[in-house]
Amino acid sequence: MAEITILIALVAGFVSFLSPCILPLIPAFLAYLSGTSIDEAKQNKAKARLHIFLNTIFFVLGFAVVFSLIGVLLNSVLTSIAYDLRIWLSRIGGAIIIGFGLYLLGILKLSFLDVEHKIKVRKFRYNYPTSFLFGVAFAAGWTPCVGAVLGSILTLAITSPGVAFSLLLAYSIGLGIPFLLTGIFTAQASSFIQKAGPILKYFNIVMGTVLIILGILVFTNKIFEIAVFPITLEMLN
């Protein structure tokens, strides 16, 4: 079960990066953090590109630290709970994940996800501490369309506390790698994102459907069966 849920968390991180309310803003945001501009990056100025990339690293470290600490906390607090309670956690968690899926499909209204929780970050003289704190703020103040996906992974971590740290670390990696790639190839990423704009409108439909399926699997405790299915086939062969 651990392998399949960690893979889900990794993919969820990448999907969060692709969310339509974040992806179009990322190149400009990273340029802002580094105190440079996209135009400078497009002119292939090595110093500007390096500055953006280094600030991106600190930004990714900021949200990775927060998510990993949450994973450690969930692991410490919930690992020793009784089996019967875990069953109920799976049922409640599955229902919550289904709710997040219905929200992305526009079927269910969740007002707390429609509000962006902002944390003000004071800019330092040097960019790197600012970028790190913006990463922390990004993790703590999730925007609406990321909230449903991240909320589902947090719920999955609560229902599987033994791998909570691994789940949230995998989510951080899945979210962080495309951020780092954007930091390296800011100019190319900006052009790609502009072209990908029309496709992003299908994001909520696809992710909403995926979350509903995931929620059903968690609710019915069927994720384990999916995880062992390849092993069963190998044994039969």
Describe this structure in words.
- The chain has 237 residues and is mainly α.
- It has one domain (2-236).
- The chain is 75% helix and 0% strand.
- The protein is built from 11 helices and no strands.
- Helix 7 (144-159) packs parallel to helix 10 (203-219).
- The two termini are 22 Å apart.
Write the layout of secondary structure elements.
Elements: H1 2-17, H2 26-34, H3 38-42, H4 46-78, H5 83-104, H6 127-140, H7 144-159, H8 164-184, H9 186-196, H10 203-219, H11 223-236
Helix pairs in contact: 1-7, 1-8, 1-11, 2-4, 2-9, 4-6, 4-8, 5-7, 5-10, 7-8, 7-10, 8-9
Low-pLDDT runs: 228-237
Distinct helical segment count: 11
- Tally of strands: 0
Over all CA atoms, what is the radius of gyration? 19 Å
Per DSSP, what share of the residues sits in E-state strands of 2 or more residues? under 5%
Shape: globular
Helix content: over 70%
Average of pLDDT: 76
Q: Structural class, please?
A: mainly alpha
**Termini, distance in Å?**
22 Å
**How many distinct folded domains?**
1
Order of helices and strands: HHHHHHHHHHH
The largest sheet is:
none
